[in-house]
Amino acid sequence: DLLVDAQNAEARASLALYYLGLGQKEKALKEIGLANELAPENVNVLFRSSLVYEQTAQRPSALRALRSALNRGYSLAEVLHHPDLTELRQDPGYLAFSKDFSASNSTNQTK
Length: 111
Hints:
Layout: H1 9-21, H2 25-38, H3 43-55, H4 59-71, H5 76-81, H6 92-110
């Protein structure tokens, strides 16, 4: 995708996760930074950003990206079940804002 379209933010975010899997944290951070510049409102880019930041020990950035993704409609179920976010879900910062999404999610399910 990037060979065809260097402006593809989701492809860059996916590449960031690939680099992360290879242990190439600097390249992962560079790609996720570019993805965020290209599509700062894209929920998939924001969610992948939270994964990259969490796995590179940048918890405040991970929390910001995750909150932004949820604010824009990203799946709470995905957040609750993603294994790479297990520790983050115990963070007081996450616990503070996740209550809002849990309440709105249960309200939406009862309508």
